[in-house]
Design a protein that fits this description.
Radius of gyration: 20 Å
Largest sheet: 5 strands, mixed
Shape: elongated
Length: about 180
């Protein structure tokens, strides 16, 4: 489930092959985005000019919330989508290591647990320092709750942060102790 998706805009021109490429890439993500044709609409052109100090029609340009990307490589676009929309990320359950992980551009965010008496004791959550403050921790914990519930586990929130996320949403109060 996608949560907290910032507004995504693609500034370009209908006849531009690079613009069409980005339309296809964004469509493949299934994220909502607005295509703003800067050649067909002066309002869109003016908005794009306002993004650059040189006042030029630098297209294609993609904005994700307040982040501006001018003609990015596909990998760079996905890097920023993953940083700014952590709900896009997939969570993995490593039963052997007793942790849930999310890979954010090669960095690992994780929830560690201990399994006792058929219950998961969620003891630690961690997001790499340089990625903190972007909602990744909350998304990691919510995805952990969803995954462990899907797999049929009962859990106890030991970590204070995990407990705080649980207490903010009544959905989890009866599922996570």
């Amino acid at each position: 489930m996608l949560r907290n998706v910032p507004e995504i805009k693609l500034y370009g021109a209908d006849g531009c092959h690079k613009t069409r490429y980005y339309q296809l890439v964004l469509e493949s993500t299934r994220l909502p985005f607005a295509f703003l044709d800067v050649e067909a609409d002066e309002g869109h052109a003016s908005e794009l000019r306002g993004l650059y100090t040189n006042g030029k029609l630098n297209f294609p340009t993609i904005t994700i919330g307040s982040k501006k990307l001018r003609n990015p490589y596909k990998d760079e676009l996905f890097k920023w989508l993953h940083k700014l929309i952590p709900s896009m990320l997939e969570i993995k359950h490593d039963k052997e290591a007793q942790k849930f992980t999310m890979d954010i551009n090669g960095e690992e965010a994780r929830v560690e647990y201990n399994l006792r008496d058929g219950k998961m004791y969620l003891v630690h959550s961690e997001v790499p320092y340089q990625l903190r403050g972007r909602g990744i921790g909350k998304e990691l914990v919510l995805k952990t709750f969803e995954k462990l519930t899907e797999e049929g586990y009962k859990a106890v929130a030991v970590c204070t942060y995990i407990r705080a996320v649980k207490n903010r949403d009544p959905k989890w109060k009866d599922i996570i102790e």
